[in-house]
Amino acid sequence: MNQNAEYSAVNDRVRGDFFRKVWAMITPYWRSEEKAKAWTLLIAVIALSLFSVAISVWVNSWYKDFYNALQKKDEAAFWQLILYFCGIATVAILGAVYRLYLTQMLTIRWRAWLTEKHFTRWLSHKNYYQLEQGGYTDNPDQRISEDINKFTANTLGLGLGLIQNIVSLVSFSIILWGVSGSIEVFGYTIPGYMFWCALVYAAVGSWLTHLIGRRLIGLSNNQQRFEADLRFSMVRVRENAESIALYNGEPNENRRLSDRFSLVWHNFWDIMRVSKRLTFFTSGYGQIAIIFPFIVAAPRYFTGKIELGELMQINSAFGNVQENFSWFISAYQVLAEWRATCDRLLSFRQAMTDNEERAPAIDVQHAGTTLQVQNLGLDLADGRHLLTDADMTVEEGDRVMVSGRSGSGKSTLLRAMGHLWPAGHGSIRLPAARYLFLPQKPYLPIGTLREALSYPQAGDTYPDERYAHVLETCRLPHLLSRLDEANHWQRMLSPGEQQRLAFARALLFAPQWLYMDEATSAMDEEDEASLYQALIDEIPGLSIVSVGHRSSLKRFHPRHVRIENGHLVDQAVIA
Fold first, then answer.
1. Is residue 545 classed as helix, strand or coil in its secondary structure?
2. Alpha-carbon span 362 to 355, nearest angstrom
């Protein structure tokens, strides 16, 4: 199955049970070790949201008295009601401020918890590697940073807004039912007719809103993906700036970036067109809602059945009921963004689940004191075979060089030993001993040189004297004064210096088994010889499995194995 098909299959499984999976993503935090603080904050925010509804009911009652005072030209009551409103406004402001503050506090705590869980899961089971190799998800960095941020903020915002709207709807429906009276239509008496008008008005509006704006969900999802792809392409230019500059590749990169941006551009235009139609409708819907209650209630006012105060109270209550019934309309764009965010997070989580549940094709275990490769087959994604029923045994203390033509599977063999190769069969028994892999391109984390040297251990694992010794041994004395300098060392150092730094890391770590994938390809033969000899001298009994091409490496490996026709074949050592 190709990458696009895999990606589509993951998304199909997500869409198949959307709400259950979203619920499964929401609930763990509320049962976690932070549940006491989370529920306390949530209850406080809900209480303040309900308090804001009570304030609205309070203001609705004030409307009646205030407009009646205006109609009667009662100046004393007018000023008394103005002061009364100032008190209501003060309480409302305090409630609104603390509701926002506590909501933000809950949002960032939930985001921090979810982010940490996704960090842990993404970095376990080699998910970060397998998902990148398989192409099952795009831009996991964006999904963990931006999508989780949007998910927590929008979930809380929509959830609290829905609760507030339901309570407000019940409260103002009771008020509207009581003040709107009844009306005769074709001989039938309809009690609380203003309530039914608000319900019908909102229902029709919600249905039309969904018809007009439903494309926004897919478009929002695409926009997030295209934006992330564009950012990733620009990061690639930064990371490979020197190579691009030497190739004079600026026009080519310009085309690539322009192609990426064109996807952003065209998708955004689609969003604009749908949003324009949706805004035309929602704006018109909102404007008509301002005068609609006056039109419907006017007959009762002009016949003297209600006073101006009651008319304004009806207008306020109708506006609240209609607004609450129309919550779906006002929140539609946020709902569309929330749905797109959920789809992206769920497909990311589903891809990790698939990888975790996928039975390893190659059985890799750590046991015993020898390295044993038995009946090993390594396959490529297109079905081609690299190794077929290969066998090899490496004893403790051996130093073995693996060679072969380019593309024969040398590096793939090391990946299989590192639990990184998914396609094939057979078994690999690695010694249950302290080991280290040295890839051709070392990874140097951004931070202090001390941290880069000791990776994956902490920077304070070794004393200064030990760091100084390995730098001197690996011909990097010019870096001694920069141990505590924080920098992007992968950019600062040449490829040869990076590989020497990796050897210094190996000397610090002092493994019993060392697996190297052309770890000296960027060095000259003098540095290569010096560093290999340092490993042999300073780590007694070190077992080495090296992948390499250079004949100069052979003297450091008493045993040579070559990949020929899909098999591991021992070569005669020429003295």
1. strand
2. 14
Model pLDDT for residues 451-503, shown as the tens digit of each residue? 999 998 988 899 999 999 999 999 999 999 999 999 989 888 999 999 999 99
DSSP 130-181: HHHHHT-SS-HHHIIIIIHHHHHHHHHHHHHHHHHHHHHHHHHHHHHHHHH-
The Cα 295–Cα 287 span in angstroms is 13
**Using one digit for the tens of pLDDT, what is the confidence trace for 78-124?**
899 889 889 888 988 999 899 999 999 999 999 999 999 999 999 88
Delineate the domains of the chain, giving CATH numbers in brackets.
Answer: 3-357 (1.20.1560.10), 363-571 (3.40.50.300)
Q: Count CB neighbours of 93 within 10 A.
A: 11
**Sheet strand arrangement including 543-547:** 435-438, 513-517, 543-547, 399-404, 559-564, 567-571
Question: How far is residue 561 CA from its own chain's centroid?
Answer: 44
Radius of gyration of the chain measured on its C-alpha atoms: 34
Q: What is the pLDDT of residues 349-389, one digit of tens each?
A: 998 988 888 877 889 999 999 999 999 999 887 778 888 88
Among 128, 238, 123, smallest CA distance to 490 is for: 238
Cβ count within 10 A of residue 308: 16
